[in-house]
Amino acid sequence: MRITRFIIFIFFIIIMTLNVMAQKKIVQTAGRTQLGEFAPEFAHLNDDILFGEVWSRNDLLSLRDRSLVTLTSLISQGITDSSLTYHLQEAKKNGITRTEISEIITHIAFYAGWPKAWAAFRQAKEVWKEDTSVEDAKSRFQQEMIFPIGEPNTAYAQYFKGNSYLARISGEQVPIANVTFEPGCRNNWHIHHATKGGGQMLIGVAGRGWYQEWGKPAQEILPGTVIHIPADVKHWHGAATDSWFAHLAFEIEGENASNEWLEPVSDAVYEKINKNNQE
Q: How much is the pLDDT for 1?
C-alpha cells in the first residue's frame, strides 16, 4: 500500500508553529538570601532583573545558550569561585552533557588561557562526576544501532520523565528523526489530533521499550517493531527500566493537526508494566 503523504516526525519538532512550548520563568532568591538586608537594591537587580527578566527571555536565547555564554564569560575572566560552580550546575540542568562541557572548556582554553581552563575543569569534573557511567552506557548503546543518538532533548524535557535525545535523520521528502531514551525514560500521555488523516508511526531500532494506548495493555517495542497510532488516541511510549531504547518517529500528515501533551505516566502504572514483563 502506497503512503502518499507522509510525515514529519513527532514529539520534539512536532509542528513548532502549532505547539509552541511555554517558557519557564527563572526564580532566583540568592541575592535576597545573602544580601537582602545589606544591599537590597543589588539583591533586587540580581534576583528580579538578571534572572527574573534577562535569563527568562527564552524566546530570544534558550537557557542552554545562555549557560554557554555565561560559562564562557566567567571562565575567560578566571572566575572559579562558587558562581562558576553554580553556573556549571545550571548548565548541566539545561542539557549540556559531560562530553559537551569537556569540549566547551577545551575550546575556551585556546582563547582565554590554559590555566583558566585547568581551573574550570576541576570544578566541571565534580559537577559531572556522576555522569561518567551514563556516558559509557550511552557510547555502548550507540554501537548497537546505525542511527546517531543525537543531542539532549531539552526543548521538550518538561513532557518527559528522564533523559531523551534527538537526531534528525532526514529533512527532505520524508523528514525522519531518531529518538533515544535512557533506561526508565518515558514521555507523558499525549494525543495527536487531526480532523482528517494524521496520527503517528514508530519503528523500533535498538534496545527495548513500551507503547501503550489509554485503557489497553502496553506493547513491547523491539528493533523492527512497527507501531501505528491513529489520530486522537491517547498514548505514551518510552524505554524499559533496564534498557536504553531508540525508535524512529513519524507523524502522518493530516488536516488541522496538533499535538496535545497531557499528564505524566504514573510510577505505579509504569512499574507494574515492567514488573509483569519480568515475571
A: 44
268: cell is: 505505579
What angle, rounded to 10 degrees, do the helices at 114-127 and 98-112 form? 160
Task: Please answer whether residues 194 and 257 qualify as being in contact, where contact means their C-beta atoms are separated by less than 8 angstroms.
Answer: yes
> What is the CATH architecture of 155-278?
Sandwich (2.60)
The predicted structure's pLDDT at residue 122: 93
Task: Report how far Cα 240 is from the mean position of its chain's Cα atoms.
Answer: 18
How far apart (Å, rounded) are the C-alpha atoms in residues 214 and 160?
17
Burial class (CB in 10 A: 0-12, 13-18, 19+), 240: buried
With cell 557511567, the residue in question is 133
Ramachandran region of residue 72, left (φ > 0), alpha (ψ -120 to 50) or beta? alpha
DSSP secondary structure string for all residues of 118-173: HHHHHHHHHHTGGGHHHHHHHHHHHTT-SS---EE--TTGGGEES-EEEEEEE-SS
> Domain 30-130 falls in which CATH fold?
AhpD-like (1.20.1290)
pLDDT for 9 equals 36
pLDDT for the residue 250:
87
- The ranges assigned to domains in the chain are 30-130, 155-278
- Contacts (Cβ under 8 Å, ≥6 apart) of 79: none
Burial-class residue 151 by CB neighbours within 10 Å (0-12, 13-18, 19+). Answer: middle
Strand partners of residue 236: 212
Count other C-beta atoms under 10 Å from residue 13's C-beta: 18
Mean pLDDT by 10-residue block, N- to C-terminus, for the chain (279 residues)?
A: 40 36 64 86 87 82 90 94 93 85 94 94 89 77 91 88 90 80 96 92 96 96 96 96 94 88 94 80
